[in-house]
Amino acid sequence: MNRATGTVRERPYAGKPPELRRMERRTRLHAAGLHLFGTRGYSGVTIPEICAAAQVTTRHFYDEFDGREALLRTVYDGIVEDTRRSVLLSLASAGDDPKERTRVALDAFLHSYLDDPRRGRVACLEAVGVSAALEEHRRSVIHEFAAVIEHESEKQASSGLIPRRNLRLGSIAMAGATNELVIEWLTMENRPSIADLAEELLLLFLSVLEGARPAFAAIRGPSAVD
User: Fold this and answer.
1) Alpha carbons 92 and 90: distance in angstroms, whole number
2) pLDDT averaged over the chain?
């Protein structure tokens, strides 16, 4: 025991130092959270069930997390970070063609969420409405992805490909539409392929971006798009 803090100092066990065993426990808890939240749902899972799936004690669970919501947020953040990285890497390796850039970014996003549907369920269904704090965090993530769309849209506007306007609003709309279509896909009995879903979203994005030119001309007059 550490007399200064009153805590019990773990000793090496089975040849593994305490730090490694703690990391392994956290990894197992993360995997258990993804599986149980992504298959049975957040509200239908208890901490003892998570501990049993992760093969850890309840005490070790609370060493890592304050409760179920803390684990859910950690699983959610891992999915978001993986997806953000995948989208940005796809854009970094794409060329300058706007349609191609939109296509590869959508493909990266959808495959990150839906190749393993548990990930999409946690991100788009189970993390919704859990608490005010998590809801605020989830909304900030949607705005982060909208910022990526806005950045790509600004590049098109700077090149004269689309009319310049408040692109933030349209970007949030496209991010929200993507989220809703992912939810629809997750809850459908007869799911289309991810490729078909990506194509539908590509059509939507191009309609919003490129379709703005004739729409602006019809609403504001031809000079609005010059």
Assistant:
1) 5
2) 88
